[in-house]
């Protein structure tokens, strides 16, 4: 894990976490929730690293220099544990939780705390959640569980009730703009802020040029299906390399912008301002009633993410629907 700095809009949240540390009132379980894309994981790591640090600063942040911090930097700290879905899976299994329960029955290897990060917490299966609940009912020595979720309603109420809660809110536009400028990102700032606000982009992706290029390439494919120059089945297969949630967020935002254009809403209200000319052109020849139906289809598909659906088939289905909307079938 890489040592990180706080994002500007986390300062108020950090003040609360800082008090926990300074007053030695560390919760047994902390639930950090809020929309995707605004650094919940970064804030979690900052808190966990600070708990493990041997030489904290005045504001309770980790020092980045002690033995503990060096172990964190090299991904070898024995008291820092992260639970997430195994590769190729979308859920956290009961076996993963049982292993943690067994591990936390032992004392932390160092004198400080042990931090267990569960991300995303709502990915726990029902059996895993039940096993984790038993863990909360029998507190482990000097162990803090930090649960991260963008969908707290998916967690059992029995788990939520046993956690201290910290809600991360969508930052003000001014704060986002200030941070984006500080990161020397000077192009399409308005578009990037809009994409962040609708969770179609994550903070950590802003500096990743491959993500932004993938979005642009995906949009060209989408236009290609509309014009008939790309086949839905081929594009659906190509898109399997794109994370499902990421892809659907993009598609939903594009169709939403197209609906705005079809209803003659000023282009300044579009989310994807960099694609505005394409939306204007498409909106001139599309049936708006069918467009609303297509939008509903995408929303239903989004709700099925994480289930046993065949995502490639689903993708091909809505691309075929999209091509028909544009008179290609």
Task: Give a description of the structure.
The mean pLDDT is 87. The protein has 2 domains: 160 residues, 3-Layer(aba) Sandwich (Rossmann fold), CATH 3.40.50; 140 residues, Zinc Finger, Delta Prime, domain 3 (Up-down Bundle). A 5-stranded parallel sheet has the order 2-3-4-1-5, with helices on both faces. It is built from 14 helices and 5 strands. With 329 residues, the chain is α/β, with parallel strands linked by helices. Helix 11 packs across helix 12. Helix content is 49%, strand content 8%. The relative contact order is 0.10. The N and C termini lie far apart (50 Å).
CATH architecture of the largest domain: 3-Layer(aba) Sandwich
Q: Tell me the strand order in the biggest sheet.
A: 2-3-4-1-5
The CATH homologous superfamily name of the largest domain equals P-loop containing nucleotide triphosphate hydrolases
As for the number of domains, it is: 2
Largest sheet features: 5 strands, parallel
The percent range for strand residues is 5-15%
* Distance N to C terminus: 50 Å
Rg over CA atoms, rounded to whole Å, is 22 Å
**Helix and strand element order:** HEHHEHEHEHEHHHHHHHH
User: In terms of per-residue confidence, which ranges show pLDDT below 50 for 5 or more consecutive residues?
Assistant: none
- The gross shape turns out to be globular
Query: What's the level 1 CATH class of the largest domain?
Result: Alpha Beta
Helical content, roughly? 40-55%
Report the CATH topology name of the largest domain.
Answer: Rossmann fold
- Broad structural category: alpha/beta
Quote the average pLDDT. 87
Counting DSSP E segments of at least 2 residues, the number of strands comes to 5
- How many separate helices? 14
